[in-house]
């Protein structure tokens, strides 16, 4: 049913005044001179300061008071969002070494159950982990990763019960059901078994910066305090992770910074797990590795900004003269990822701004792209076990088509639907329409836009608009189905993804044009998209809402400073808004990893440029849109104090009377609440804020 875009005007009782944070002089030092930060005191690394906690609780109390009159609308939205979920749903099973593995949910329960069945899906179910039982009595719980030993008898998993992404390693005997006493704290959610079924590799974090710094080897049953060091990375501009080749012959240690990568490999049968370097790190060289036969297959940007796929003998892979192109570099297509099989290789490539699936046989006789009839869509390659298989899995989706998992036979050219994501509540794809547009940026660049709306929504400049973007780290925002957005479209909204520079939708250059000294393109692209949609009458000038999180929250802060009158409301989730102070402090998680993304503010050129757009530093006395800002006390990615300081400064200087709400989750981190329904409560608050803002 098509719902009215506007809501009844809510009569608000007299509200308490919003909290006003004290101003305390503090000098933030840098090689380029000090600057005053009167709200620096809101940073408390211990998260125990009574003064700070009292202020944050006051902000929550004010937000709750402000939102209280809209509780009925919140409840309506929450029930609507939950009502689209098939509560007893399950993932598509995956076959590994004779077991079918899958994840399922039970009606009314918050957390997943990880299970398997032997040989056939009609065999008795073996529950490996019940997230609901493990989460009992906890305010936050998350299983970040799990890995079964090659013989199928031992399960290693990483759990977090704080939300700070400092995971704990646990090991369970799947034969007996007993969880072993041994644990390792402060690890990444990334675990790999060796082929002896008792040796497990994990990544240890630095206790202060939380950066991934060491790989250690744990032998099941041994004292974790004696776990041997396998590898240590001393350059803290690199992230560290582990993976296993699809062939199951090799284990890899993967090192990645913004612009470089380096892989190390060891034979999974080697008792000593002696690692060798695939290709030593080189400036501006990024590559990924897969194994097939006697060769490594590389996705590499060596002399190929948009990447190419090459194949080379393992023993000579570092000698680039031995490389043979499998899929050559193209100016008009960006090679995103790949999967190898005995006779085929499947590649996700971006061309025309959209993710497509390219399949090629090693002998070159079959070479084609799977097409779509929709103007805006995503075809996402899925990890497919079994190197001997001729079948590859992928997900097809768009803003108006729910996710459908296909299994595609690369030999016979036949595809089978394995699952279509159920969307309850009367949803029908035919009731919605998607389009793929372009806006012209201030420098002439054409910015892709994916939009969707309910059929019957008038294109006469009266519809409200919900516009989203991310635009950092080369991460592309693909047009995939988001069930929650149906609630907005059914209320007359046009929803839009702005594929701004800083992502990689249009290739590597698209990323380079939105980082470092080009970062402002991300912000002006977003504004250009808004103005294009208003000018073309997809949306009303005074009904535009913007949303973004994390680095997308920085985008929200920037547009609020640059073009506040273009937006009726802004939602900024866990926003990275105090960029200069954070990037000057190398004790903060992620800082040293990100100098190639934002610049190092110790360098005056970057300092001046970052200061010119830093959302926190550019708040001035003027009118701002209505704003909802969220954060998590235990956030390790973007510390809570960035949002707290930003809100405090906005309250002190903005000249309007539009709502400014700050909601901080005192039991969660960067990802918000951990339960699948509890997360929807946060979405209901966001949508209620937007709908109410339309009538205020």
In short:
This protein has 696 residues and is of the alpha+beta class.
The assigned structural class equals: alpha+beta
CATH top level of one domain is Alpha Beta
Gross morphology is globular
Instruction: Determine the fraction of residues in helical runs and give it as a percent range.
Output: 10-25%
Mean residue pLDDT: 94
Note poorly predicted spans.
none
Main sheet? Answer: 8 strands, mixed
**CATH homologous superfamily of one domain?**
Alpha/Beta hydrolase fold, catalytic domain
* Strands in their spatial order, largest beta sheet: 30-31-33-32-34-35-36-37
Note the gap between the termini. 25 Å
> The CATH topology of one domain is what?
Rossmann fold
Regarding quaternary structure, what we see is: single chain
CATH architecture of one domain: 3-Layer(aba) Sandwich
Q: How many strands in all?
A: 37
Output the number of helix runs. 12
What would you report as the Rg, rounded to the nearest angstrom? 25 Å
